[in-house]
Amino acid sequence: MAKRIDVSGLTAYYGSHKAIEDISMTVEPRSVTAFIGPSGCGKSTFLRTLNRMHEVTPGGRVEGKVLLDDEDLYGAGIDPVSVRREVGMVFQRPNPFPTMSIFDNVAAGLRLNGNYKKSELSDVVEKSLKGANLWNEVKDRLNKPGSGLSGGQQQRLCIARAIAVEPKVLLMDEPCSALDPISTLAIEDLIGELKERFTIVIVTHNMQQAARVSDRTAFFNLAAVGQPGRLIEIDDTERIFSNPSVQATEDYISGRFG
Amino acid sequence: MSHAATIHDKRPSTLRGASLPKWSPWAIAVGSIVVGIGISLAAGLDSKIQWGLIAAILFVLGTYGIAARVEGRRQAKDRVATSFVWVAFVIAVVPLVSLIWTTIARGVKVLDVYFLTHSMGVVADTEPGGGIYHAIIGSLEQVGLATLIGAPIGVMTAIYLVEYGRGRLAKAVTFFVDVMTGIPSIVAGLFILSLMLMFEMQPFGFAGSLALAILMMPVVVRSTEEMLKLVPNELREASLALGVPKWRTILKVVLPTSIGGITTGIMLSVARIAGETAPVLLLVFGNPFINSNPFEGAQASLPLYIYQQFSNSAGSGAAYDRAWAASLTLIAFVMILNLVARGIARWKAPKTGR
Ligand SMILES: Nc1ncnc2c1ncn2[C@@H]1O[C@H](COP(=O)(O)OP(=O)(O)OP(=O)(O)O)[C@@H](O)[C@H]1O
Ligand SMILES: [Mg+2]
After folding, report:
1. What does the UniProt function comment say about this protein (chain B) (predicted)?
2. Which residue ranges of chain B lie beneath pLDDT 70?
3. Which of A28, A35, A79 is nearest to A202 (CA)?
């Protein structure tokens, strides 16, 4: 089910602007890896290279390799659409489809891909909503529009939508940054459950969150404004937060800069 | 101590100032109209437009003067800006209302079921009787066919420009759409006419549809483009990240989100071409008899009918009455289209709330 990600020598551009340079790391299956680092250092960019969403941006270009269980996502003949079915994504701002009901939002991935059986659909929707800890709150109004939910519920709806297509890897870009502490806690608990089934990568600006939910933590930084972002180090979360091997990491985590 | 307090009390509040009562704009408007009429009569002006202009100028000046005296200069400027907006609004609305009023007043004379269900047939243009059934049929068919051609091409062009278009080709398409927006309708008609002459064809309805489609397309492209650009990129990305191919994302996420606005744009462009006369005159020619086959033989159409009734009337009141009644029908048709477009836009708008 869950798959391992192996990145080597990855560089990404926006047009002629090099956003991240020479990043290599391994993400183990059924683990949670957190990305931390200052704003603009390329965490989102790197995350989006992992399911080929980077090239959706006009001018977006990638060099290097991303292996998903030994298969290079950027190899010849790889269809980005199938990559995205294996590697799902949750965005910073909840973005349910405004024309669809709650049910249709969760079913969207299956319906739009066209490969589903009608009889299975409601089972999948129920299972995904339960998996996203949203079922009890919405089971009585599955036919109401998804945009009528609260921000935290919408974000969990988006998670349900992402896991409904049974991806192998789930990428989350600051999934809690627009949420209150209670919804944040709900999503953190959810991440703990989801890691049994998926490989999870999460970007966060919240150190405590990284420490709470992740097994491993990667610290990104940029040498100076205008320079591409780089991976400074990746290690077990406990080590990063107690005894990192690079001074810059310790400075960042403890709030000392410059 | 008490000294300071008295000074403080005497100072006027900085937050509350003198202000004119709520009804003052109306009073000033009425006053300036009365004074305007007075001045005009005294000066012996007989054009009502001059009366109105004098009243409008008096209204703006009067608002400024009174407000400046009572409320201060800043509020006076604010009120002058507001009164300018009102004057502009009235100037824009007066001709519209008078046009609709004239059309209704003159149009209802002969507008009845008989008029709507009979053609002119052998009724001479100078005599009373006859109807516009043939023109309604012609208009519906020509505009309908034009929409069937123009709307899909326009929407697909807009989808190309917004969702796929990059580089030279997209720039060229945008440029040509801009050029097409400026094509006078008679030129579109001449273009199709030259093709017809090449193939030695006689006037027929569908030729008119082609010219109308040319006129319609750029309008549809522009409005659809704007609507597609309003769809947040996040929705496209959400769909793509689910592993949905791009074309399906456009079809199932982007278009449904913007369908209300797109329909409104199409309806408005239909309203625009429904009133076109020049290309229809060249290509469809006009026909007092019912011809419901748009692919063969001359047809009538409402704008063409109006034009021909006026030009062939030879001063006969009956023809004028018919022309006004047909105008009323055309305006009603366009208004109904607008209402339908609004209805669809509201019905299809992304739903919020629980
Ligand atoms: N669409 C884009 N076009 C051009 N440059 C971009 C685009 N998106 C991001 N960049 C640039 O790429 C670099 C990395 O941006 P990215 O969004 O990955 O940072 P981030 O680490 O996610 O920041 P944050 O923590 O604020 O989300 C920045 O210099 C940014 O200006
Ligand atoms: Mg980011």
Report:
1. Part of the binding-protein-dependent transport system for phosphate; probably responsible for the translocation of the substrate across the membrane.
2. 1-14, 350-354
3. A35
